[in-house]
Every structure is written in structure tokens, then in C-alpha cells.
Design brief:
Layout (H helix, E strand, L loop, with lengths): L5 E4 L3 H12 L6 E4 L7 E2 L4 E2 L5 E10 L7 E8 L20 E6 L5 E7 L4 H10 L5 E6 L5 E7 L1
Antiparallel strand pairs: 1-10, 2-5, 3-4, 5-6, 7-8, 7-9, 9-10
Bound molecules: zinc ion.
Amino acid sequence: MKTSIFRIVPLPTKIAERARRVAAAGAPDHATVIADSPNAFPCRHCLRWAQPGERLILFPFAAIPPGRPYSESGPIFIHAQGCEPYAALRQYPADFRNGRVMRAYNSSFDMIDAQVVNGSEPEPIIEKLFQNPETAFVDARSVTRGCFTFRIQRA
Ligand SMILES: [Zn+2]
């Protein structure tokens, strides 16, 4: 088996725990929602689809920090109950093999490339994006709604 050249970066546990605290305190920009369909509520911490009936927190996350041309903050879900962070860091998350776009950024957070993964294998697309020495990281996002799903770095 080929060693992967990339490493999956789920949402840091610290950020998930803070979002759960802020939601519990009743902040209006941290909503609690209940999943009502099996493939529509991706948890950015464990990198799995929430199952119908599971509670989630919906809150804004700045995947690309403020103060830059490509700065971007957008809505993400995490499980409302504590969940384990995604651990198979050398493996592409099985739940998100379809319906993602891979956006490549340089070290200044400028978007320099993007490719849709839909019905194709994500690994060769990620490897191709990292063949560009300018690529510092790749963000996987929803191809339909555009929401940040997870980050990918060089291994
Ligand atoms: Zn989760």
C-alpha cells in the first residue's frame, strides 16, 4: 500500500469544545439543530455524517483568517455531544468521498487552484494539488453549499 503524502486535519477539539460551551451559554450565532436526514449534517470534528436524531451545533468558523483577500467565515456543524476527533489522519474520510471541492491555498492563504471530487477518487486529486510546490494546504468543502469540511496538509 502506498504511503499517503497528506494528513487530514479535523476541526481542533479545543474549537469544538469552545463551540459547545458558547452554545450552552445561549449565544445567538451558535444554534442547536437536530439532524433529520442521514447525509446532510457533517460533523467537522469526528468527520462523520450525523445520524437522524443526533443533535448538532451550527456556528460560524473562519477557515481562512480575517484580514486577507480570501478571508472566509462560514457555517459548520459539530456534534452537540462530545465526539472523538477523527483519528485516521493518513486516510481520506470515507463519509466525504463525494460532493466535495478541493481548494488549494498557498502559505499566504491565497486560493491558487480548485478541483471538484464527485464520482472520482479524491486521493489522486489531492496528490496533484500538492505537486505544486506553492500549495501549503488544501481545504475540502461541500461542492453544493460551499461549507468548509476539513483541511488537508502535507504529511
Ligand atoms: Zn462528531
